[in-house]
From TrEMBL:
This is Pyrroline-5-carboxylate reductase catalytic N-terminal domain-containing protein. PANTHER family: DUDULIN-RELATED, REDUCTASE. InterPro entries: NAD(P)-bd_dom_sf, P5C_Rdtase_cat_N, STEAP_metalloreductase. Keywords: Oxidoreductase. It comes from Streptomyces nymphaeiformis.
Length: 211
């Protein structure tokens, strides 16, 4: 598969590096050519510009702060020129609190889909690059599960393959509308993790939940 990644930070490194190791062709594009070249050299990805990454291959991962995604795509061309393209949304629009900076309206993934017309799949936002860069991301309970939210079967299948190729266990968690729930859940988890709590402690085995 061929994947374009916008950004040269921690998520670009973790996911891009993993996909290169799995045999995929990855082009990373950042706003700083030196950082882009360094990331490409250390991961085996191809270096490029933001514009090249945005339109490269089968799917685009904007590994950018949420607020930077539409401006970055808009700097490449009209945002609706990404209509139909597979866009993997890993962003967390989360501010201190934590609060969702998207407020009560549509969340990040739905906003990106509405603005671009892209086939957006929400994925990879719920844990940190330290997890995605493990080889493989497997713990005592097995591979890390990756919830995917999206409306397009082909896009969900593609992102599912990319997650499985990292050594994770992807599953379709619902339509894109459910990305709002995943984004809110992740904000809640961030609050627990940053206050030193283990969210797993609040989750009994499903069999214990009764009818
Ligand atoms: N870190 C996490 O734990 C985590 C987990 C899951 C999801 N996410 C999400 O993944 C996305 C990327 O996070 P990250 O941890 O990789 O962040 P990061 O390490 O800070 O990297 C951010 C990247 O975005 C670029 N960037 C920032 N503003 C930009 C702009 N206006 N135009 C173009 N490029 C811009 C930065 O470029 P420069 O280097 O030039 O500044 C950098 O390459 C975010 O949406 C975040 O919420 C993060």
């Amino acid at each position: 598969m061929r994947v374009g990644i916008l950004g040269t930070g921690a998520m670009a490194r973790a996911l891009g590096g993993g996909w290169v190791r799995a045999g995929h062709e990855v082009l990373v594009g950042g706003r700083d050519p030196e950082r882009t070249a360094a990331l490409a050299a250390s991961t085996g990805a191809r270096p490029g510009t933001l514009a090249e990454a945005a339109r490269f291959g089968d799917a685009t991962l904007p590994a950018l702060p949420y607020d930077a995604v539409l401006p970055a795509l808009g700097s490449v061309g009209p945002v609706d020129s990404f209509g139909g393209r597979i866009l993997i949304d890993c962003t967390n629009a989360v501010g201190p609190g934590p609060v969702l900076t998207t407020g009560e309206g549509p969340g990040a993934a739905r906003t990106l889909a509405a603005a671009t017309g892209a086939r957006v799949v929400k994925a990879f936002n719920h844990v940190t690059p330290a997890v995605w860069s493990r080889t493989p991301p497997v713990f005592a309970d097995g591979p890390v599960a990756v919830p995917l939210c999206g409306d397009d079967e082909e896009a969900l299948a593609l992102v599912s393959t990319l997650a499985a190729d990292l050594g994770c266990a992807p599953f379709v968690a619902g339509p894109l509308a459910h990305a709002d729930l995943l984004e809110a859940t992740t904000a809640f988890l961030i609050g627990l993790w940053t206050s030193g709590r283990d969210p797993r402690a609040m989750l009994p085995p499903p069999a214990a939940l009764g009818g």
